[in-house]
Amino acid sequence: MKKLVVLLLSIVLLLGIVGCTTTENSSSNSGSGSDESKQEGKKVLKLNNGSEPTSFDPPIGFDSVSWNALNNLMEGMTRLDKDDKPQPAIAKEWELSDDGKTYTFHLREDAKWSNGEPVTAGDFEFAWKRLANPDTASPAAFLAYFIEGAEAFNTGEGSEEDMMVKAVDEKTLEVTLESPVAYFPSLVSNPAFFPVHKETVEANPEWHTEADTYVSNGPFKLTKWEHDSEFVFSKNENYWDAANVKLDEVDWAMIDDTNTEYQMYKTGELHTSDVPADLSEELFNDGKAQVEDQSGTYFYRFNLEMEPFQNENIRKAFAMAVDQQKIVDFVTKNEEKPAHGFVAYGFEDASGGDFREVGGDLVTTDADKAKELLEKGMEEEGYDELPNVTLTYNTSDDHKKIAETLQQMYKEVLGVNVDLANQEWNVFSDEQKQLKLQFSRSSFLADYGDPINFLESFQTGHSMNRTGWSSEEYDRLIQQAKEETDEAKRFELMHEAEALLFEEMPIFPIHFYNQVYLQSGDVTGIVRHPVGYMELKGAAIK
Amino acid sequence: MAKYVLSRLFAMVITLWIIVTITFFLMHAVPGSPFNQERNTSEAVQQNLEAHYHLDEPVFIQYVIYIKSLATLDFGPSIKQSSTSVNEMIGRGFPVSAELGITSLLFAVISGVILGILAALKHNGAIDYIAMTFAVIGISVPNFIMATLLIQQLAVTWEIFPVATWATPLHMILPSIALATGPMAIIARLTRSSMIEVLNQDYILTARAKGMTTFQIVTKHAMRNALLPVITILGTLVAGVLTGSFVIEKIFAIPGMGKYFINGINDRDYPVIMGTTVFYSAFLILMLFIVDIAYGILDPRIKLHKRGN
């Protein structure tokens, strides 16, 4: 009898607790799409999203784990082509008023939602106002600020009626901007500007959380969403350009670990993969790793409110002592382009020149000059000895390697001993914003495809400034560039601003970002934009 | 007995309340915010977000709001994954973690106990040394190394098992083994040492004298006493293993709840930090309670109510 009790107890201890949970197993045992994919002729692309999307509600999921996928579920007025140029999408055409401020978009007659209903201008008006509505609490709301009245509405000073976006009729949307924005057609390809199906959203605020209630208007529709585990897209037969969508299905796994992702890529369970850090050199040498530009800059910020970086010459000395080429060749080894300016490659001006190439190298590696500037700066400040410098980065192996290299370069070139410190990301970010760090690692990724997105960051008091640097001249140049309608002049103003930034050097760049990936030879047509999100509309698989 | 259970339950609630309070204030004392992004956001956007989640209120008010919703067992919405509530997260993640945990725990207990008994019976013999070498390796090899090794050999090279994800029973085998090795080694060592002690007791000698076989002695007399220390650690082990392992779940891409413990803190996702802490603590306290009850049944010498009767 006692034995029985003991036995029962051990069973209770081990199993009893989950007696209630085992019934739910069936849901997690639903085989992945792979069984179905064996059906004949079905073209299934297998991708990894890394983790659960933050949200598939366009204004909420402001990150790549949400928007990479969302970009293929929904479609805005325009869609970027493989050369990153905006092409007509839901809008078949648009007109611009003479003052460059009012866009009139004409929607396609055959644009439909996945539930068969037409996509209307009213859906866009509703979605864009929803983006700016403070109650939506969208982290991407600032992107709407280009529209007249949106900022006031978002900050609670204005009303919804005063936000200048209006459905003139069923298929015509008129939007008035704060100032002329030549790249607005490119901007509205951003997921923040995707329409939402008004009736669905009004009827069910939770519409975007499950596959069966999700309504989309893009090349694909959401057919299955197993939270934290996988989701499946199927071709949307109601899409206006469905004839040009070659895939039948896209299966998205959520694998957080790059090594696991790579192993699954090798066994054919995934069609693309990131490159594990330990293997990058080998995979580059074998020519397997592919590289695409990404519009963003890895850079360092000086804090102008802390000694010794109040001095321009000392800042310049620290900037010129760094050899960007060596860092990308021997430290990161990821084939990034070394950065000698802040704006990344890939922005074309009116005459077809690349902004970065026209702007040239604004900071160059020069050991002798650096030493000279350091001496000069110390003299100006009356230093016999340079105050202690601490370089801070957020805890990560990659950042650590670069920080240690900089430490070494400063010792060799300037004879300065720099201390290193690392902090957990959130603490680091807080202290950087509060100007508590003397000299710190930073990065910038563009939100939209124009150099002004990079340059506006360093206006006085801008939330991305974080250096304490302030220049009236710079602020004026940025303001002028934002209001200028002539493209050639606008680019000139931006070049002038960037040159000024490096004249005073509150920051210095290390490298531009890129996207490195492995991709199965069977897959073609996936587009990875430098600014923007993954494009699967034209993707195909053998 | 009923009195004992009641007073224990009361103590459990108090313990939980203390844990909730300390965690809540510690969490808000740490620098950072759930909306910290390296990318650009405007001041107004930041304020709208904070207002949306009541983070603009004084911490004490937030605490009162939280305790009120906790009283109704509502952990609130996640800030990072705004369309998901913490209750949903735990509801989805816990069954998966528990499933993995139970499988690996069964594996750990069964193989650990068998290894331990064999080692004790052949004390200082070859089997003992082999079993204990095994146990030392199990304790000293971290489970993420074990996991990577298993994937490399069994999934990539030999292609017997799938690399990762959580779909069929076949997918469960590698992560269960990887997760089980540590606990198995601990259990094996504990069983061995207490078994050796028990086997030297007089009553075992008596049993032997009566002509019982070794198998009978072990199963009828020795095991019950020898397993007491194992039961002791089982409470903690069950709570730890069942609520998910961050590393194993990450490597095998298992949709369990292990990641919420770590990501919640990294993201400063306050409701997730609280939800996982409360859930884990409640679970652990309950396990320890069950273990205490189990003692009383296994060993009549242990009295639950101190000066009772």
Low-confidence runs of chain A (pLDDT<50, min 5 residues)? 1-38
Give the overall pLDDT of chain B as a whole number: 87
Cα shape of chain A: globular
Characterize the quaternary organization of these chains: heterodimer
- What is the radius of gyration of chain A? 26 Å
Derived structural class of chain B: mainly alpha
Query: pLDDT under 50 segments of chain B (min length 5)?
Result: none
Percent strand of chain A equals 15-25%
Membrane topology (chain A): Lipid-anchor
GO molecular function, one term (chain A): peptide transmembrane transporter activity
Biased composition (Low complexity) (chain A): 23-34
Subcellular location (chain A): Cell membrane
Explain this structure to me?
The complex is a heterodimer of chains A (542) and B (309). Chain A is of the alpha+beta class and 542 residues long. Chain A has 2 domains: 45-258 and 520-541, Dipeptide-binding Protein, Domain 1 (Dipeptide-binding Protein, domain 1), CATH 3.90.76; 294-516, Dipeptide-binding Protein, Domain 3 (Dipeptide-binding Protein, domain 3). Chain A has 19 helices and 18 strands. In chain A, the strands form 5 sheets. In chain A, strands 11-16-12-15-13-14 form a 6-stranded mixed beta sheet, sandwiched between helices. Chain A starts with a helix and ends with a strand. Chain B has a domain at 90-258: MetI-like fold. Chain B is 74% helix and 0% strand. Chain B has helices at 2-29, 43-52, 59-71, 86-121, 126-140, 143-157, 169-199, 202-209, 214-226, 228-242, 246-251, 258-266, 270-298.
